[in-house]
Give the backbone structure.
Amino acid sequence: MRRTFPILITVVVGWVLIVADFIPHKPFGNLGDDFALYFDIIAVFAFILGGGNLFRIHLTKVQKKKKDWPFSIVTLGGFIVMLAAGLFKIGNPGGIQGDVAAVGSLFNDMYMQIFTPLQASMFALLAFFVGSASYRAFRAKTTEATILLIAAFIVLLGRTPFGLWLTSGLTGDMSFLQLPNLTDWIMDVPNLAGQRAIMIGIALGVISMSLRLILGVERTYLGGDSD
Amino acid sequence: MLNEMIGLWIGAFLTLGIMSFLYKDNPWYKICEAIFIGISAGYWFASMWWQNLVAKLIDNLWPALVALGHGEIQYNLVYLVAAVLGVMMLLRLVPGVGWLSRWPIAVIVGATAGLQFINFLVSNGVKQIRNTIVPLFGPISDAGGIPPVQSWEEALGNVVILVGTFTGLVYFFFSKEHKGLFGGTAKVGTWFIMITFGASFGYTVMSRMSLFIGRLDFLVNDWVMVTLDFVGL
């Protein structure tokens, strides 16, 4: 019951949804939309579990005064304040019936003044790590690394005005060597070929994994034997 | 104006705090990082609550509750099943019946497998293969929805795409050792895949740089300039 029934659910749901694609009539025709709804709703409950887990881990860290515990207080504080601002719609001009992200609400203010700068700065920071990674890759001596870097270099320059300015002297028959044109060719031809190989590879992987799941061969998603 | 100034200063404090990591890991960065974790968890939690749970489940199951009234529950089977599956997910926390949380997971896994089987087969598999099998040399009349080849550049491009896709797929075939002709073909495939990675790498660098320039623009043109204007300098 604990393991067999979930496997049965997976097998039945999987096959029904495949068969439903061939029967565009009720009740099969709407099954895809119904299950998309289930995804969204079950995801909320998964979020409740995740939020609870975040709360528990940081609370334990504070209680036991583990390493860097004061930062856990900051995390908990941010989580609670943002959660309260969103769930109770504090300062929302439309009250509890208003849109959660309405302009003027505390939730929206915190999103704009705290979340957005933090997210943008965090991703901007990656520019430097990408820079240092490319420096290391530039020193790589293999053919593959060289091809990767030449493609990256052309695409980077080709999408900037500097790239056009740099190669604007190449006109007439040589105009295809202008960096923007070269970039377009790389994107439309060899890049497309590589993308297709990867996409078809992914499709084959997904199809084989789906078959393993709906035939009941793959069972790792059920976890261990314990509760 | 004062509210705007407070917002700008908070934004600047957080931006500089995150950027301070470039020097080294420090308490200022850790505070900003901790705020980011807490705020983003709270943001997604509250958004999911209102946009998914309330708008998609409670609003359909018990509309009067959302309107703060006392109407009746509408026993729509689709939403009831969704509600039951969601609650079963939470049973993971209850000792003794935690195994029941496998049921909603099984539904998700089964539905994903069923839906993605067809989706990937059609969009990533059949359509990509069909788009690769195009006339290599022209001019050939429009047959099967594939437009005719207009120029030698296009013909060359089609040949390169066919070779690149085929050799790339050969590289992903790991059931045979990559040696001899097969190994050489796979090697050519890796070159095409490297070009794809290079293009993605280039775009990633550009997007990150653009974000960095955006933050610098905020610090200089918003924070510094508005503050100077505020104090009358």
